[in-house]
Amino acid sequence: MANSFRLIFLILFCFNCGEQVQKQQDNTPVSEAKQNSFAIIIHGGAGTILKENMTPELEKAYKSKLEEAIRVGHSILKQGGSSLDAVQKTINVLEDSPLFNAGKGAVFTNTETNELDASIMDGKTLNAGASAGTTTVKNPIDLARLIMEQSPHVMMSGEGADRFAKEHGLDIVDPSYFYTERRYNALKRIQEKETNSTIDTTSVSVNFYDSDIKNFKFGTVGCAALDTHGNLAAGTSTGGMTNKRYGRIGDSPIIGAGTYANNNSCAVSSTGWGEYFIRAMVAYDISALMQYKSLTLKEAAQEVIQNKVPELGGDGGIIAIDNNGNMVAEFNTAGMYRAQMNAEGDLKIGIYKD
User: Fold this and answer.
1) 23 and 43 in one domain?
2) Which residue in 109, 134, 135, 220 is the catalytic one?
3) Annotated catalytic, 220?
4) 44, 62: one domain
5) Residue 138's CATH number
6) pLDDT tens digit sequence for 154-204
7) Does the pTM of the predicted model rise above 0.90?
8) How far, in Å, CA of 191 to CA of 216, rounded?
9) Who's near 57: CB < 8 A, 6+ residues apart?
10) Domain count along the chain
11) How is 207-250 classified by DSSP, letter by letter?
């Protein structure tokens, strides 16, 4: 009888030990993978980007700047930095380049001014910040983060946003800083088309953007990242649409349309025809499809960009990353400037449709 009790005890003891070992085996690798995994993806705008219209020198310049920008963010993540820092500093590089419609390369409004928009979101807290219509802030993405962290608001606009930036010590420039001959000439070309058109372009009911203007609206920049702590973040910055009137604001500073991040799903930055991206709430919709319908990031992005947005009449694309480090660059236009890097340092850069 005593031997029988000993045998039962040993069996139960060994079973319990085995269960504890199994739990450790199940949990430890997942925890380590979560801590060590990181990735980053960026875009420089989507639109009618055709290889036949691109010189070898310009293509090289775009690819070089995309690589420079993404390596800045990747370095931050590799050193254990936050996804927010990676997103902000990566976008800074793109904002400082005249190649993209953001910061230095911002397009012109109908009245020959530059009005810039930006937004950023923290996937851990769902905190967000955005600015719209600024004219003196050198790096609008910095203002978006400042608003997120140093104010009770989500969005500020125009003169007030410029003043808030100045009061908090951001880099302020004369509006002439944003002048580039390339963007100014683009404005003049499109205004010439308006002059020669019989369409009343001052009427809000007429959509002159249905034809040639499509070619003047790409260039918005954005970034999405996952850091080693498992936190997601996304940000977007733009000069808006060439020849825009009446203080028009697109999707880039709208949380849920141009930018969205949630640790439970993904981080997204949009680029395209803003009016439609606002109506479709593109960035949030991708996250919602993942959370509520259990779609993968790729499935959700395809549904929104290839079906929902075109059905409304819009075009454009997104870059996104989920909480496991999976990345997608989905667009329904001829091209999208884009790049991505994972924890292993594998770099992919693209411009045209593959």
Assistant:
1) no
2) 220
3) yes
4) yes
5) 3.60.20.30
6) 999 999 999 999 999 999 999 999 999 999 999 999 999 888 865 454 433
7) no
8) 12
9) none
10) 2
11) -GGGTGGGGGS---EEEEEE-TTS-EEEEEEE---TT--TT---
